[in-house]
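ERR on first pass: missing label on line 2. Operator R.T. fixed the label and resubmitted. Corrected input:
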Amino acid sequence: MSPRNDHERSLIDRRRFLAVATTGVAALAGCDSFGSRRLEPALAAAQRANERVERRLFRHRSEDRIPGGARLTGNAFPQYFVSDSVPIWDEAARGVWRLEVSGAVRRPLSLSLDDLQKLPRVAQSVDHFCVEGWTARAQWIGVRVNELARAAGATSDAQYVDFQSFDSDYHESWDMASAMHPQTLVAFAMDGRYLNAGHGAPARLHSPVKLGYKNTKYLTRVVFMPARNGGYWSDRGYEWYGGT
Amino acid sequence: MSLTKRTHWVVRVTHWVNVVALPLMVASGLRIFNAYPAFARKGESFCCYPFEGKPIPAALTFGGWLAGARHWHFAIMWVLVVNAIVYLAFLYAHGEWRELAPRRGDARRAWEMIAFYAFARKNHPRQGKHNALQKTAYFAMPVIATVIVVSGIAIWKPVQLHWLTMLFGGYVWARYVHFMAMILLVVLVFGHIFMVFAVDPYALRSMISGWYNEDLSPEARNARPFYHLLPRRKSAVGEPMRTEA
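pass 2 clean. output:
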């Protein structure tokens, strides 16, 4: 399938996804046909309890492994963004793209793509777990977020990390432990090529330890924070934790 | 009338909790499934599901949208797991597991029941509290439920519990096992409901109050599905003779 077709298909997927999501938000906010209004506190309590279980279960040493020689997904890897059209960094209007690493750090960083690529990098072939239930496999090359934290000197106030983007107002905040996982990367290459626009160029977050929607694409800022900061889908009803 | 206390309150309570929670769990699971109603990894095909890409009818789903269904699914899972633990602990502590555990001769007794239902045998076999077919179903249900729970954990935490997911052959297969085991459980549940109404509706009383009228048992009525549903007339011994018109 040609990239263009693939992209068109993903646009349709995205519209349908948004339409369904909007209906869902309206249903949750507007009516209580399932008695969900009165039961919402119970569901929220269950979600908090689940998050405690999930955070206790979390181990840095638990890593995603795909079998050696396994096929990568390639062009069938869905492209996804929330803006009306594929977000492309406008250098004329916004200057050269830079990645800001800031917040609860001793040395805030502003990295050009070159700077980012000069940091110690890793290459990993891992699964991508979408909240919808599909998975895909790709090889990512990038810099560990824990490497960025080290370079910027994250302080003990850094309990959460917000990953922000130039894809409209898309962002997702993470717990520190998941962000520091060795498989959590700021990736700039996928399957041996620099990221293309559909997959979050010039750099994106990718990690198998969180569901797809937690992995911010079109990254602009990595902000270490003392408190969580929600997220695009987390604020629209999906679990904030979203761990795998 | 010979009333006996047949069903312990723990069994009754856990049964009716299941009646409420299981449909919600299945329907919210089907709504989650509908977000990607297929098993294949992206760009690949899947051997063993004939309806790849076909969503489940929305009327059978619950939760409204993916996130809502996930909240329900991840909340009710605790209700069902705790409920199952209470039930199984009771079976163990009270020794009632003996009435459900497979025993030598079950296959033969199950065959007797099938022969009876197929009119190849005249009288209802007497096989104790549960006949061999019931016993097999009631034993299989918690076993299948365990498979569902474990495969569910495997697709909930495919990275943190990677070893568990790999026991199922990876995420795709764990998801498939989770789905197919659910189908099997639903089939058993529908079989159970059918048999209650078609063979022994009087058992509803014992699942509500615990009391069971042995005079109305399938054995006493010689009942097959939809046969001898009504109580049998008492024997005519000692009654005045009816005169023919």
